[in-house]
Amino acid sequence: MLDADIQLRLSRLNLDTAFTVASGEVLALLGPNGSGKSTTLRALVGLLPLAGGRIVLDGTVLDDPAQRVKIPPEQRPISLMFQDYLLFPHLSAIENVAFGLRAKGIDKKAARDKASETMARLGLDGLAEAKPGSMSGGQQQRVAMARALVTDPKLLLLDEPLAALDVSTKTDVRRLLREVLRESVAANVLVTHDLLDAVALGDRMVVIENGGIVQTGTPAEVTARPRSRYVADLVGVNLLRGTARGTVLELDGGGQLIGAEPATGPVLVVIAPAGVSVSRQRPEGQEQNTWPGQISAVDLMGDRVRVRMDGTPPITGEVPPAAVDELKLDHGGELWASVDPAAITVYPP
Amino acid sequence: MDDQKQPFNPLLALLAALAALFFVFPLIGLLTGAPWGRMTSVITSKSSLDALGLSIVASLASTVIALLFGFPLAWLLARGRFRGKGVVRGLTTLPMVLPPVVGGIALLLAYGRRGFIGEPLDKATGISLPFTLAGVIVAESFVAMPFFVITVESGLRSMNRRLEDAARSLGAKRWTVFRRVTLPLIWPSLAAGTVLTWARALGEFGATITFAGNLPGVTQTMPLAIYISQSSGRLDEAIALSLVLVVVSLVVMIFRRRIAGGD
Description:
The complex is a heterodimer. By secondary structure, chain A is of the alpha+beta class. Chain A is built from 9 helices and 19 strands. Chain A folds into 2 domains: 2-228, 3-Layer(aba) Sandwich (Rossmann fold), CATH 3.40.50.300; 236-347, CATH 2.40.50.100. Helix content of chain A is 26%, strand content 37%. In chain A, α5 (167-183) links the parallel β8 (155-159) and β9 (187-192). The radius of gyration of chain A is 24 Å and the shape is elongated. Chain A starts with a strand and ends with a strand. The mean pLDDT of chain A is 92. By secondary structure, chain B is mostly helical.
C-alpha cells in the first residue's frame, strides 16, 4: 500500500498531489504533457527530493522532509519502467533484466535463472543474448517490463509504457500488460496521457493538470462525469459550466439550455456529440436548445463525423459521413445546433 | 556505415589525394632513406636501447598519472558545479596549444631547482626534478594529460546520465552504477584518451629537453636521441630510430581502433 503526499517546487511546475494505492491495485495517473505525471514518478522512486509531504510504502517512510527522512533510490523496493525504457545499451537483454537482482547481491546463476524465467513469461525467449540496439521497439518494451518486474517490487511505476509503440504492437502489449498487472501483488502506478490505457489498465484514475489533482475516481466515474476540459476532450464529450435554476441552465460563457433533470446552483453540463443534431437552416418550430455557430473543424471519428461549431456556447455535434456532402460541411459557414434535453447530463462541479 | 554513396567529384578527389600523399611521402622518405643493412646494429646499440627504454617507461608512467589525476579532473569538469570551472578547464588544457618549450620553461620556474615549489621541495626533502627521470615524466604529463582530460570529459558529457538513474532505481549503489554503467558507456573515450595521451607523451620533445635536459641514459628519450643524432651528422641513426617510433605508433593506432571501436 502506497500513501503518497508529494510537494515539489520545480522551475516550470509546482507539484502538489496526494493519493493512495492499495497493493494489487492499478492507479492510472492521467494528464496532459507537462502536467507533472513523470515528475510524480521520479519523486516516488527517489530521484527528486521532496519539498514537502510524505511517501509511505507498506508502513515504511521513504520520504519525509519534515523529519529529514530520505531513503536513497537504490534502497527503495520500487521499480520504475521509463518511458524511453533506458535499457543499458552495452548489456544483453538478459543482463539488463538481471541487473536489478545482481545489484541486490543475488549471485550470477540465480539472477540469470530468475531473469530468464521472467523473460519467458513476457514472451522473450530466444532474445537473451540480444543487445537492445538490435531489438524492435516492442521487444525493448518487454525487456524493460521484465527488468522492472523481476525484482518483485512493492511499488511498480510505469511511465507511459505504451507511448513509444506503434499502433499494431500497442494492442498486443496492452493485453500483455493487463495480464501482468492483474497478477501483480505490488501497488501499481501507471502514467499515461491515453484515456484508453487508463480505462483498460487502471482500477482507479487520478487526473492531474498543472501539478495538481483535478479529479479522481474509477474510469467509469471519471469518463461519465469529466470535471475538466482536458478529460472531456479525451472522452470526446462537450463540457460546459453554468448555473442551474430548475431545468434552466444559464451557461458561464453565455447561452441557455433546458435540461431534463432539475438542479440548483453551479453545475457542469455534459453533452455527448451524438445528442447534438446539425442543420443548415434553423430547425422549424424549435425555440429552445438551438443556436447557430460557424464551422471550425470537421473530423472523421471511426464511422461518424464530428463537427465543431463556434457559437454561444461552442459545441461539437456528430453526423453520419453522408451528411458531409449533404450539408456541404467542407464549405464551412454557419450551422444550427440542436440539443435534445435528454442528452444533457448535469452534475455539481 | 554510410548508406548514401558519395557521388564522384574530380576536384574533391584530387585535393583529397594530394592531402593523403602529403602524409605518405615523408613515410616513403623514411623507408627509402633507412640504413637497412645496419638497422639491427643501430637499433640494438646501448644508447638506442636506453633511449627506447626511457621513452617507454616515461610515457607509460605519465599515462598512468593522467589516468590517476586526470580522470577526477575530467569528472569534475563534466559534472561538478563550481565557480570558475571555465577558467580551470582553460588552464588545464592550455598545454595543448602552448609551444612545449614554453611549457618547459614554465615548469622550470615552478618545479626547477630555483622554482617557487622546486626550491622548498629540494630543501625539505632533497628531491629535485630537473635532469631526472621523474622530471621527464613531469614534462610529459604536463603536455599530454590535457588530451586525456578533454577526451574523457566530452565522453562523460555525451553519455545519457538517465541510464545512471535507471541503474540506481534498480538498486545499484553508486560504485556499482559507476562500474557497470558509467565506465562501460564512456569506455570508447577513455580508451581514446589513454592512447592519445600516451602517444603525445611518447613524442614529447620541447618540454622534456627544456625541463629535464638531455642526459643519455637518464633523460634522453627517443625524440631527443633522434634530434641529437641528426644534428651531429649521424643521419642513418636518426632515420633508424625514427622508424622504430613510426612502427610503435602504428601498432598503437591499430590497437586503439580495436578496443575503442569506430569504423
